[in-house]
Write a structure and sequence with these properties.
With 215 residues, the chain is of the alpha/beta class. 44% of the residues lie in helices and 16% in strands. The protein is built from 10 helices and 7 strands. A hairpin with a 5-residue loop joins strand 4 and strand 5 (158-160).
Amino acid sequence: TRIMNTVPDYAAITERIHGLQSHLSSKIRGQHHVIPRVCSVLERGQLGLNPIGKPLGSFLFLGPTGVGKTGLTLEFNRYLFGSDSVFRFDMSEFLHLDNVKLFMGDETGRAGRLGNVLAHNERGVLLFDEIEKAHRLIWDLFLQMLDAARITLADHRTYDLFRFYIVCTSNIGSDRLLRPTRLPFTTLERAVISELHRFFRPELIGRFDEKIVFK
């Protein structure tokens, strides 16, 4: 259960959220199909309408480098929190089993990078870049994070994530988007999502609130 010390000012939150879509549209170019879907999740999160025991919201952003996946994340963080509350992890650093402990901590009680962030911050955005490059043990960790907004790391410490948004980015299927083609974008979207399902387990994919392909 969530314990709130004060009653949220829903009128103020609603007014603030009302301007989010136009703000993001002014900052992120060429991705107008993305922004309404992102704003819908953010609105539910800010108003406390997301299911109990879940993160504020979760996204899997797909597309080539440079299309605005990270930029959109930084912009909605600044708009909602007014501070630099994005905690970014380059998941290619945790490709090999030897490096998993750097992320998750170890049995001696040494905290990993994720644990260090969660121990010192109560809210914000957790941004995991190129999630497909992480070791499979870390993929299993995301099942906990997305399903219960609670995580027990290898150092045996448990952390709550219900005040965080979780954003994962991936380049899976990007080659399809970069080829010259006359196919409609909706066809390319389906191809990218199909490739995503060949790469990740369906139970992981299904736990994201939104899976969005960037043009």
